[in-house]
């Protein structure tokens, strides 16, 4: 009789230990709050010809080729959210990728980078592309990495892409990895 009661006690103890282990694993997984990869770039080459619109120019033929190259260059990141400032040159730079990924281009206010950074960190996107300008792209990178590291791009510089990976934790400092690729 005693043997049976010991065996019957093992089941609740095993169940209790199993539930405890499950809760421990769940707590560890939930310690990681947010993981986001942000791809930042300046728009492709704009039309600077004599007939070009001076306030909202189109892309040049070279710029259109660069926008097509962008699709292949960042293919492995598979952006699920695409942001562009509300200028023709930025929207046209993002358009081939948006079409390929079947994603809408979401417009942001290039004068409110703090709001965009907060949206990136608190939004639902995990892999985000942001097309900006020679001043706003490095400024946004600085906001995301929380350092004043990057300066405005030269007016003739178009081929730089920032890839910033941010992992925010509940109980630990966030981890930021960054790299720059050329395209």
Structure, explained:
There is one protein chain. The chain has 183 residues and is of the alpha/beta class. It folds into two domains: 1-30; 32-182, 3-Layer(aba) Sandwich (Rossmann fold). Helices cover 42% and strands 24% of the residues. It contains five helices and six strands. It has helices at 2-30, 61-73, 88-101, 113-122, 136-145; strands at 32-42, 81-85, 105-108, 127-132, 160-169, 175-182. The chain has a six-stranded mixed beta sheet, with helices on both faces. Helix 2 (61-73) runs parallel beside helix 3 (88-101) and helix 4 packs across helix 5. The chain is globular. The model has no long low-confidence stretch (mean pLDDT 89).
Fill in the CATH topology of the largest domain. Rossmann fold
Q: Which residue ranges are poorly predicted, with pLDDT under 50 across at least 5 consecutive positions? A: none
Identify the strand order in the major beta sheet.
3-2-4-1-5-6
Number of domains: 2
What are the secondary-structure elements, in order, as H or E? HEHEHEHEHEE
Portion in beta strands:
15-25%
**Number of beta strands:** 6
